[in-house]
């Protein structure tokens, strides 16, 4: 019970930080634009920073909302054919933009473009699951970001998405806990921002699709 209370307190502190920081940044840039004349180049730079902050706000709010839904829903409301290869490429591009990464920071291996790998599921939920895995891989990369997304079909009725990184790693004793809601692993001397909801959401989505995450 004490551990749960500590995790919830940590979650509230993390969410508060993730909300307050971009709001304060947006307010500062708006006040600057209002108070003084700026060049067109400066205005464009301010707009870019504010859009990035707005994206960060939206991502945090969506994570909290999805975690609430994941704790209640047991079955998918909608299913349709989803090309996991195309979706993985989309998530990779989204991750590069969000974290301002170069083209070689996140790579894709596996399925050929002319060999679609189809799963019957919810494309928005699957996009969130793959996006959260990539987001974690990038955030826990201590030095240069080198992430690989591999798509394979180990059996005729199974598809596997594997995300590899060269980050700080996860101690064996932590492996059973990282998918718990609010749990955040902090490597010694390495601080990572977040809400502790990402992998919990990934696990919920995987289970809803009849799969598993490990």
What does this structure look like?
By secondary structure, the protein is an alpha+beta fold. The chain has five helices and five strands; from the N terminus they run ααβαββαββα.
Keywords:
single chain; 214 residues; alpha+beta; 3-stranded mixed β-sheet; two-stranded antiparallel ribbon; 5 helices; 5 strands; 13% strand; globular
Counted by DSSP, the helix tally is 5
Reported for the largest beta sheet, the result is: 3 strands, mixed
Mean pLDDT figure? 83
Which strand order do you get reading across the main beta sheet? Answer: 2-4-5
- SSE string, helices as H and strands as E: HHEHEEHEEH
Beta-strand percent range: 5-15%
CA distance, first residue to last residue:
26 Å
Write the SSE topology:
Elements lengths: L1 H34 L4 H31 L9 E4 H16 L6 E4 L8 E4 L1 H17 L7 E9 L2 E7 L33 H11 L6
Parallel strand pairs: 2-4
Antiparallel strand pairs: 1-3, 4-5
Provide a concise account of the structure shown.
By secondary structure, the protein is α+β, with helices and mostly antiparallel strands. Helix content is 51%, strand content 13%. The strands form two sheets. It has a three-stranded mixed sheet. It has a two-stranded antiparallel ribbon with strand order 1-3.
């Amino acid at each position: 019970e004490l551990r749960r209370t500590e995790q919830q307190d940590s979650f509230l502190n993390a969410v508060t930080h993730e909300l307050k920081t971009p709001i304060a940044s947006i307010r500062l840039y708006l006040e600057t634009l209002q108070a003084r004349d700026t060049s067109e180049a400066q205005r464009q730079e301010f707009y870019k920073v504010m859009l990035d902050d707005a994206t960060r706000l939206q991502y945090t709010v969506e994570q909290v909302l999805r975690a609430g839904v994941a704790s209640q829903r047991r079955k998918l409301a909608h299913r349709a054919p989803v090309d996991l290869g195309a979706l993985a490429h989309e998530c990779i591009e989204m991750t590069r933009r969000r974290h301002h990464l170069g083209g070689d920071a996140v790579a894709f291996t596996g399925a050929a473009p002319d060999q679609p790998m189809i799963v019957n599921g919810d494309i928005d939920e699957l996009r969130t699951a793959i996006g959260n895995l990539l987001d974690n891989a990038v955030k826990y990369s201590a030095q240069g970001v080198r992430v690989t997304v591999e798509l394979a079909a180990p059996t005729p009725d199974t598809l596997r998405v594997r995300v590899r990184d060269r980050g700080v790693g996860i101690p064996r004793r932590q492996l059973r806990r990282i998918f718990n809601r609010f749990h955040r692993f902090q490597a010694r001397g390495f601080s990572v921002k977040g809400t502790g909801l990402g992998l919990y959401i990934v696990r919920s989505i995987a289970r809803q699709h009849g799969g598993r995450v490990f």
